[in-house]
Amino acid sequence: MDINDSVVLVTGANRGLGRAFAQRLLERGARKVHATARRPETVDLPGVEVLPLDIADPASVRAAAKAAPDVTLLVNNAGIQTGADLVTGSLDGVRHELETNVFGHLGMIREFAPVLARNGGGAIVNVLSAMSWFGSRVPTPTT
Ligand SMILES: NC(=O)c1ccc[n+]([C@@H]2O[C@H](COP(=O)([O-])OP(=O)(O)OC[C@H]3O[C@@H](n4cnc5c(N)ncnc54)[C@H](OP(=O)(O)O)[C@@H]3O)[C@@H](O)[C@H]2O)c1
Q1: pLDDT in tens, 93-125
Q2: Where are the beta strands (DSSP E) in the chain?
Q3: From the CA of 117, how far away is ligand 1's center (Å)?
Q4: 47 vs 138, more confident
Q5: Which fold has domain 7-129?
Q6: Closest alpha carbon to 79 in 28, 122, 132
Q7: Nearest-atom index, ligand 1, CA of 99
């Protein structure tokens, strides 16, 4: 992937890995970085274009695609970990995690795929977890 001259949108760019991605992308030759966050006022990087974006809110995702029609590289970084156990944990916690980490990322892909296509192609980077390569045993319930 050629970062040079790319126009990148990074989700969750206000802290953690997302902030580091946005910073490095600028240093490595991206023409523009749309640094997005649920609370845009928390983005503190110089040189980026700041946009509000909650990936779990379809209206917010649509608005971001309208506001950033020049994107050629999407970095789907925003994510949460509630720690909710799939079997015994709160279903609301599980739903919240899926709405963000699965449907949030998917919503971004669906909204930005046409944007990338209009700009001649491009790439989508989905930031996942190494845990996605592993299966884990659910402990046998004791009676
Ligand atoms: N760090 C690791 O060791 C590790 C390991 C495996 C996977 N990952 C994955 O890597 C990505 C970044 O991890 P991190 O460690 O940098 O996490 P982090 O420090 O907890 O940051 C998470 C980022 O996602 C944003 N976010 C959460 N929900 C959002 C939503 N609905 N809409 C928009 N932004 C939202 C947060 O914004 P707020 O500030 O508004 O909360 C924050 O900017 C995540 O997808 C995570 O699952 C990280």
Answers
A1: 999 999 999 999 999 999 999 999 999 999 999
A2: 7-10, 32-37, 49-52, 73-76, 123-126
A3: 27
A4: 47
A5: Rossmann fold (3.40.50)
A6: 132
A7: 31
